[in-house]
Amino acid sequence: MTLEEVMQKLEAMGTEQTKKTLLRHGAKEPLFGVRVGDMKKLVKEVKRDQQLVQALYDTGNYDAMYLAGLTVDPKSMTKERLQTWVKEASWYAPAEYTVASVAAESHFAMELAREWIESKEEMVATCGWNTYSNYLSIAPDEQLHKEEIKRLLMRVKETIHQEQNRVRYTMNQFVISVGAYVPELHQEALEVAAAIGKVHVDVGQTACKVPLATEYIKKIEERGSVGKKKKTCIC
C-alpha cells in the first residue's frame, strides 16, 4: 500500500462522532476520527513497510500517527527518530500513548525516559513519565533500577500537585505502575499513593477521571496480579 492509499482508507473509516469525541479530548487537526478497532484492520498490511510507517507519522494526521504507533517496529527506531516523534506530539494522546509505548520498547527506553521527565515542555515530560511506566510493565525485575524508582516515587510525593496538568496525570500513573509491576516496591507505592491522595487534572469537556492510585493498586493486589508483566505495551 502507498501512503496515499492508507490515508484514503483512514479517511473512509473516519466518523464525525469519533472526530468530535477526540476533539473534546484535546486532539488537534488534521484527523479523520477513526475508531481504533477499525484502524487495526490495516495493521498487518502496513506493518510490512516500515518506511510507510514513518511516512504515516510524518503526516501530522492524528489517525495516521496512531496507526504508525501500532505498526512500527520499536527496535528499529533510532534515538533521533524518537526525539522527532515526541516533538511532533501536539497533544497528550500521541505523547502519553503512541510515543511513550514505542519508546518503552525501543533500545533507548530508559535513556529517553530520564531525559524527557526533566523537560519543561508538558507533552515531553508527560511522555517521559509514561515511557518509564510502560517500561516497568514489560521489563524483567532484574533490569529495573530500584533505587532510581524509589527516588522518583519520592519526587512524585513531594511535587505532583505543583506540576503541569498532564504531568500530574502521568506521575499518578507512574505510582500505579510501580505498585502493579514492581513487587519489591509495591508497599512503598501504596504509601506514596495514600500520601498524594486525589490528583486534580483538567480533562476538558470529557467524563474522564483521574484514577485514585490507592484504590487502583489495591484492586490489582486483590486480583493477585502484582508483578504480572505484559508482553507488549503497544495497543
Descriptive report:
This protein has 235 residues and is an all-alpha fold. It contains 14 helices and no strands. Helix 5 packs antiparallel against helix 6 and helix 12 (165-181) packs parallel to helix 14 (213-222). The relative contact order is 0.10. InterPro entries: ARM-type_fold (IPR016024), DNA_alkylation (IPR014825).
Describe this protein with a few key phrases.
single chain, 235 residues, mainly alpha, 63% helix
Topology:
Layout: H1 3-13, H2 16-24, H3 36-39, H4 43-47, H5 50-58, H6 62-71, H7 79-87, H8 92-104, H9 109-117, H10 122-138, H11 146-159, H12 165-181, H13 186-196, H14 213-222
Low-confidence stretches: none
Report the biggest beta sheet as strand number plus sense, adding barrel if it closes: none
Helix content: 55-70%
- How much strand content do the residues show? under 5%
Secondary structure tally: strands:
0
User: Which structural class do you get from the secondary structure elements?
Assistant: mainly alpha
Number of helices: 14
Order of helices and strands: HHHHHHHHHHHHHH
N- and C-termini, Cα separation: 22 Å
Q: What is the 3D shape? A: globular
Mean pLDDT: 97
Organism: Brevibacillus porteri
Protein name: DNA alkylation repair protein
InterPro entries: ARM-type_fold, DNA_alkylation
